[in-house]
Automatic annotation (TrEMBL):
PANTHER family registered for this protein in UniProt: METHYLTRANSFERASE, METHYLTRANSFERASE TYPE 11 DOMAIN-CONTAINING PROTEIN
Alphabetized UniProt keyword annotations: Methyltransferase, Transferase
Transmembrane segments: none
Protein name per its UniProtKB record: SAM-dependent methyltransferase
GO function terms (MF aspect): methyltransferase activity
One GO term (biological process): methylation
Amino acid sequence: MGSFEELVAEGAAVPLEGWDFSWFEGRATEERPPWGYAAQIAARLARVGSALDLQTGGGEVTASAPVKPPLMAATESWPPNALVASRNLPLVVQASDEGPLPFRDDTFGLVISRHPVVTPWHEVARVLKPGGTYFSQQIGAGTNRELTDFMMGPQPVGDARSTERARADAEAAGLEVLQLEPVELRVAFFDVGAVVHFLRKVLWTVPGFTVERYRDRLLDMHEHIQEHGEFVSTSTRFLIEARKP
């Protein structure tokens, strides 16, 4: 185990492109949701003729599906991720997370999204074919609240990522919610370098995070991990499936 300065420098130097978390192996763990999102996506992609992956990151999850439909498109707003995704998927369009989506009405039989920054529900409904479905694993309200509060002090938890809000927004867009399943998952960080990389990569955990701005709290985190062996937080996720009538 390195010194505080060495660990922080290491976490600050890891590239951020893509949505691959393999760097954290041995340095952090996150319990996985019970529903097996990647396997469900693979099964669904094999059954449709057209699909859209919103906010795909580096396209890694969708690329792992062994069978993809004849029309397989994806969007990504961050140029470095869009470049990575274009190596993994056949058609990647750089587009705003909030929309509008650069596709015609009633184009896709399936729209998927893993951990979207925001869900443009009305745009999702517009590009879905009648009878098509939206299937998404999303970040829930208050995710990693322990980490956020440790770094920033106690923070309010809004409803923007709540399951109730997701249901209401989907229905307001004219979609029928078929399933909505929340879960809480254990997250553990084993060194402060992993915390630094996580906060750089998952930007909404501590908005405006930089090593310089939060150096004192990072030192407190380092000392906490040295004393307890880990820092434990709780991530929240939910699975939502909605159908266009």
